[in-house]
Task: structure prediction
Amino acid sequence: MSMSGSAVELPITTDSTPEEKPSSRQLKKQMRLQDAKTKLSSPWASGIAILLAIMWTIPTFGLFVTSFRPPADIQSSGWWTFFTNPGITFDNYKNAWSANGGGLSAFFLNSFVITLPAVIIPISLALLAAYAFAWINFKGRNVLFVAIFALQVVPIQVTLIPLQTIFVGAGLQNSFWPVWISHTIFGLPLAIFLLHNFMKEVPASIVEAARVDGAGHVKIFFVVLLPLLVPAIAAFAIFQFLWVWNDLLVAIVFAPSPNLKPITAAIAELSGTRGNQWELLSAGAFIAIVVPLAVFLGLQRYFVRGLLAGGVKG
Amino acid sequence: MDWFLNPTSVSDKLIVMVIAIALFVAIMGLILWLIDRPNIPNWLVVVGFLGPVTIALLVGLFYPAAGTVWRSFQISQAAIGPDGKPVINPNTGQKTSELGFSLSNYQTVFTDQSFQKVLINTVWWVVLVPVLATGFGLIYAVLVDRTRGEKLAKALVFLPMAISMVGASIIWKFMYEYRQADVPQIGLLNQVLVWIGLDPYQFIITEPWNTFFLIAVMIWIQAGFAMTVLSAAIKSVPDDIVEAAQIDGATGFKLFRKVTVPTIRPAVVVVLTTIAMGSLKAFDIVRTMTGGNFGTSIVANEFYTQSFRQGEGGKGIGAALAVILFIIIIPVILYNVRQMRLSEEMR
Result:
């Protein structure tokens, strides 16, 4: 969706997030003292910040608490009464997960099956393309690169109807294949652009040295560049992963069959058909959220880096 | 071949997944093996590295986009034979239809009242979400900048970015949940209304304000993005500029307004355009919370409904809606290409 990195000259580095730049703790402390003057009047500012943080967190927290309350409690009282009248159950999760309840285990598997190839394939293709744009000289390179760069803002809506016709013609409709293929295609422009930026940061002398040693492009790509690019690949992989895992549109267009639906589509449907069963919806929502949440909390550093390099899609 | 296209068991699904990845690795491996030899002409190497991507983008993005533009100017109409009479399908006895050139899809979208509502809602989304999310993100980034709990404070606001829009919609549907006045409320917002002595309110159903309650969900999600990017921009404001301003006597809010804001203006513009494009294309929230009912539909959602829920008749209108999305985005593409050119030149 965007390519903010190049445009604003944000501090994009391959090894650290901007916050960490002042390396030692002491330096940070010193800066903090020095900066006290530059900040808005402190106690008030902190108070407002805490208030806003609470406001932003309460909706998620409320549903989280609800997912552990017995159905009767959920329907008869607000989740905030939980603290005066606690009652905990794990049955909501058990029911949402099991085949004769919400059946989310099958959809969870579908999400996994959809996501893995839809992350590996576009990144591999994009790495090859990014290498060609960064390190092979050929005619028309800049034109082609700008064309691909511009393609990333094509709204996927514009492509869906003709793509569906193509998939029907190939006999692939309503299977995982169109979902994998379209996620790959939709992810490519941004992936190529970002990975190209990272590729270009590799010093030319390293590539030249390999070339002098007689290495061809394929060897340079695999032996010299790939190992250096692992952090960049991780940053983008997280984004593509979250985008595919959280996607609803592509999935319900290309794999509408109940057997193939990912968990987002299942939850969206439950919200329509069983909108009052909050014990099912709350637990279901958290089953869907837990994977991206874990990825976010565990890999926050990469996540923020990818974001600052412009890795946001919508 | 049924398991290949429509696998049902856990193992079949996993096997198909492994096959897909293996197939890809095998094809790419073969291509790279073929071009990895000395004395191979340069253009063949380029084809090996770039060919698959170029084909994928031409067939998967460029051609479909052109096809949609084409389709948006077509309507399904009764086929007329050379004799001037409708063509009858001999098998079914029905009149056959064909696609004919027409501007009526666009006409419908811009003149029909329900579609006008969709367009107006979309404008609200595209204006309110970027402005409010960026405003909040900027204020919050400044408030927590270089404070003790900065990391945690930022993580809390950023969290909604990581969860899906579907998940966010469920979370907010629960916040907005409505119960009649005489029974205990289970949605927090209605409970707050009751606490301060008002009647509970049907946030999601009551027009026209329900659209704005859906917009609030998108702001809740996007604020974290704005905050993260702007926070990084604030931190990269050069120290010497700040010091010079301080020597001149600027402090607190004045320093922020006169020094920080102008310096980070490019970042603010990028955040605004990025969020605007995201809001334009966001379909999940409307789809999950109302399904486009109660006058809340926006172009991205109406596109889906028309294209995939209305049979052949809606396809033309769906295509026209997609083209409208595209046209709104084009100025942003041009702006961004220009920015890229500028930053390339600076290198």
Observations:
- Chain B has a mean pLDDT of 87.
- Chain B is about 70% helix and 5% strand.
- The first helix of chain B runs from residue 2 to 5.
- Chain B touches chain A through 138 residues (CB under 8 Å).
